[in-house]
Structure formats: C-alpha cells, structure tokens
Specification:
Length: 251
C-alpha cells in the first residue's frame, strides 16, 4: 500500500493506493466516521482480484486538512472529488459507504464522465425524513453537541466532531433521490447493497428502496444478510462477493 497527497481545489487530500497500479482503478470514499476501519476490510479482496483501489481520506479526516464548514456542501465536495479523480488520472468505479455513497451519487450526477460505475454500500438511498424521529429544526450546533456527547462517552472517529457535524448536516440538506434522473441519464451502472437488520427498520428501508427502484430501475439491488448499517463490518465476505460479481458483470 502506497500513501501520497494530492493538491486539489486549494487543499491537500491524502490518498492510499492499494494494489498494482496496472489494475483496473476503483475509488473509495468512506463513511461519516472515516475509513480507517473500512478500507483494510474492503481492499484485500479487491486487490486479490487484480483491481487497484484508491482510498481517500476526505477533507478533515485522517491526514487530510479540514475545510471551512461551507466546504462540506455536497456540490462543493463533488467538484473536489471530480478534480481529485482527474489529478489521479483515473475514471474509476466509485465505491462509497454511507456518506461516501451519497458523495458518489452527487459526483456522478454532476460529473458523469468522471466515474464508470457506482457501488453504494448502504448509502445514497435513505433521506432524513425517512426517520420518524427526524427533527427538521436540527442544525449544525445540535449535531455538534450530540457528537461531543458521544465522544465523551468513548466513541472515536477519524475526524473531529466539527468536521463530522458539518459533513452530516450538509449531506442531510442534499438528499440523493432528486439526482437519480441525472444518474440514470448518464447510464452509469449502479449497485446498491443494503442492510437487512434490525427488523424494526425494514419498513423504512423498503420505502427508500422503492424510491431507488423507481428512480434507477436498471440498478442492481442486493440485500446483505445479517447486516446492520455497518455492512462492511457485519458481513464483509458477502459484500466483497457481490461487489466483485458486479464489477465483472459490468465489464
């Protein structure tokens, strides 16, 4: 695994490169907590199959410096992501978990020539309003207070609460379903793997999946058995199997 920094859009982004650079390129954008526990699970089976995985530390995570809060708006991050892919000289299949899946949808919708496929790992399909407990009055300060409370209770992430709060609030304000027509028009192949647990969330999840079926009827949708939102941790073998099958299928 190689590590390097890329200058893009006035900032510096840390990128890990897994595998031989001669392999077909794949790009990974992590979830809202960061990728330190995700990439080591995802990368080995992809590399073993001959792919090259470029895994980013999003701004404010890991070794990448943070942006100002407004820089986490989805359109701005999509522009940064497209610039990063251009700087790396790749037009890859984008793999994203949770927040990273949403960023993949935004990037593909706005810069369709930048990616050749979208693999969404339990992300890019739910919206804030799907949650009956969602309070539309919740703002950045509320999110920050909750994250700081969780940090005091022992939770840890790859980025500080200020960055995670800005990213999560910006993501809620820019849901993915309105972008489905643009993604469909681009003919970019889409894979969505989704959680199946806990049972009480299945009605919410099924309504969200129906939106995907209507908006992206060509998308391949696959359930991950015995998996909560953290599909990579709960059932990594099944995620890798489906992902590799889809990659081979799309050519």
């Amino acid at each position: 695994m190689e590590v390097g920094d890329v200058e893009v859009e006035g900032t510096r982004v840390r990128v890990q490169t897994w595998g031989n650079r001669a392999g077909e390129p794949l790009f990974y954008w992590h979830g809202g907590g960061g990728g330190s526990e995700e990439v080591p699970v995802l990368a080995p089976p992809l590399v073993a199959a001959g792919y090259t995985l470029f895994a980013v530390d999003a701004p404010g995570y890991g070794a990448s410096p943070a942006l100002e809060p407004e820089g986490y708006a989805a359109p701005k991050l999509a522009e940064l992501a497209a610039g990063l892919l251009d700087a790396l000289g790749i037009a890859p299949a984008w793999i994203g978990f949770s927040w990273g899946a949403s960023m993949g949808v935004h990037t593909a919708a706005r810069f369709p020539s930048a990616v050749r496929g979208l693999a969404l790992l339990d992300g890019g399909y739910l919206v804030a309003e799907d949650d009956p407990a969602y309070d539309p009055e919740t703002d950045y300060e509320d999110e920050l207070e909750e994250l700081r409370r969780r940090a005091e209770e022992g939770e840890s992430w790859d980025g500080p609460p200020e960055v995670i709060g800005a990213a999560m609030v910006a993501s809620r304000l820019a849901p993915c379903p309105p972008l489905y027509p643009l993604v469909r028009e681009s003919r970019i192949p889409v894979l969505l793997v989704h959680a199946t647990e806990p049972p009480e969330l299945r009605p919410i999840r099924e309504r969200a999946l129906d939106r995907v079926r209507r908006g992206l009827p060509e998308a391949r949708i696959e359930p991950i058995p015995n998996a909560t939102h953290g599909v990579l941790q709960d059932n990594p073998g099944e995620v890798a199997r489906i992902l590799l099958d889809w990659l081979e299928e799309r050519g």
